[in-house]
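Worked example 2:
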Amino acid sequence: MPLNGGLATMKPSVPRIDWARVMAFRTQRHHLHRRAPKKKMLEVVAAICGMQAQVMSSVELAIWARIEGVALADVRDALWKHRRLLKT
């Protein structure tokens, strides 16, 4: 007999998530599933809350992996010339 006054209790269903779905979610969330157009560079960086940038080549590679047609000069200009990206 149930302890809650005779009412049947139901456990909420737990979703089953496999590693393939986890990796697909992470890949998409980090904008690695397909490269975004060059004009979306700032939006992509903002969407993933920034890039690891202690070493300049690291941030250039990370942005290149996510943005189609971006050049090293584009990243450097966004940082130093236009000041649209911030290096901390």
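The radius of gyration is 22 Å. The chain has a mean pLDDT of 88.
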